[in-house]
């Protein structure tokens, strides 16, 4: 049985954000920042930045040297199948396409590899709606 979006987010601790933005007015900037404030570890993926949200930026998922629970995508739908392949190769637990992003091919790739999959939903909305917060080290 497939997990719901809130179950997927509740299980996640480390979120790689594809298309993380320096612009706090863009969803790729404001949503990851909000998730970080809720206690998630945000790993920004952006080929054009060095640091975002106080974290080192990686150019691609393949560069991330630790476990990724969830890959959160802020890129156009046509990029989703390749990102899905990268998420599978990185051993991520789930792929999440943000609001208005849908891809039957990305769904097929991730589900065939056993990853959880969400599309056309916002992680910020789900985390707020279900009051999902992570414990932070004191």
Q: Return the string of H and E elements.
A: HEHEEEEHEHEH
| Tally of structural domains | 1
Which term fits the overall shape? globular
Number of strands: 7
Distance between the termini: 36 Å
Round the Cα radius of gyration to an integer and report it.
13 Å
> From the 3D coordinates, which CATH architecture would you assign?
3-Layer(aba) Sandwich
Description:
This protein is of the alpha/beta class and 138 residues long. It has one domain (5-129): NAD(P)-binding Rossmann-like Domain (Rossmann fold), CATH 3.40.50. The protein is built from five helices and seven strands. The strands form two sheets. The protein has a five-stranded parallel sheet with strand order 2-1-5-6-7, with helices on both faces. Strands 3-4 form a two-stranded antiparallel sheet. Helix 3 (80-90) runs parallel beside helix 4. The longest helix has 11 residues, at 27-37. The chain is globular and about 35 Å long. The chain starts with a helix and ends in a 9-residue tail after the last helix.
What are the key terms here?
138 residues; alpha/beta; Rossmann fold; five-stranded parallel beta sheet; two-stranded antiparallel sheet; 5 helices; globular
Task: Give a short overview.
By secondary structure, this protein is an alpha/beta fold. It has helices at 5-11, 27-37, 80-90, 104-112, 123-129, and strands spanning 14-18, 41-45, 51-52, 55-56, 70-73, 94-97, 116-118.
């Amino acid at each position: 049985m497939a997990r719901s979006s809130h179950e997927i987010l509740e299980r996640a601790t480390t979120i790689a954000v594809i298309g993380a933005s320096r612009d706090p007015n863009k969803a790729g900037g404001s949503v990851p920042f909000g998730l970080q404030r809720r206690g998630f570890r945000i790993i920004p993926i952006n080929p054009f930045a060095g640091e975002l949200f106080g974290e080192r930026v990686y150019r691609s998922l393949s560069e991330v040297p630790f476990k990724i629970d969830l890959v959160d995508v802020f890129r156009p739908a046509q990029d989703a199948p390749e990102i899905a392949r990268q998420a599978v190769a990185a051993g991520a637990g789930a792929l999440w396409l943000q609001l208005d992003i849908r891809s039957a091919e990305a769904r097929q790739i991730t589900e065939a590899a056993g990853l959880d999959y969400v599309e056309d939903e916002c992680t910020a909305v789900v985390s707020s709606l279900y009051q999902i917060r992570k414990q932070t080290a004191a």
